[in-house]
Amino acid sequence: MRTGTWRLYDFFWSLHIMDWKNHENFNSWWLLAFAICGLMLGLAGTALLVIRWPFRRKRRTAGSY
Q1: Domain-embedded: residue 12
Q2: In this structure, what DSSP letter does residue 20 have?
Q3: Of 31, 48, 56, 60, which is most buried, counting CB atoms within 10 Å of its CB?
Q4: pLDDT computed for residue 41 by the predictor
Q5: Residue range(s) defining the domain that contains residue 27
Q6: How far are the Cα atoms of 2, 5, 23, 28, 40 from residue 16, in angstroms, in the given order?
Q7: Which of 39, 8, 1 is CA-nearest to residue 23?
Q8: pLDDT tens digits, one per residue of 4-33
Q9: Would you say residue 59 lies in a domain?
Q10: Number of domain units in the chain
Q11: Statement: the pTM of the whole predicted model exceeds 0.70
């Protein structure tokens, strides 16, 4: 017996696994595509952080050469 709460859970589960027809397949191409895009964005953000990170350089004093 499906109650209103169960149908709400089923709706959000189908959104989570991106399978809107059967609500069972969690290996859909939608999920794979979003996972790959998320991984690429994370790697790009990490690369930009490393490139733009302000490295502290040692300052030379007036008498040291």
Answers
A1: yes
A2: T
A3: 31
A4: 98
A5: 4-48
A6: 20, 16, 10, 11, 20
A7: 8
A8: 888 898 888 888 777 767 767 777 787 789
A9: no
A10: 1
A11: no
Distance CA 33, CA 28 (A): 9
How big, in percent rounded to 5, are the helix, strand and coil portions of the chain?
A: 60, 0, 40
Q: Using CA of residue 43, residue 44, residue 46, residue 50, what is the dihedral sign?
A: positive
54 inside domain: no
What is the Cα–Cα distance from 12 to 23, expressed in whole angstroms?
Answer: 10
Residue 41 within any structural domain of the chain: yes
Tell me the C-alpha to C-alpha distance, in Å, between residue 1 and each of 4, 7, 11, 36, 61. 10, 10, 16, 38, 80
Rounded Cα gap, residues 7 and 21, in angstroms? 14
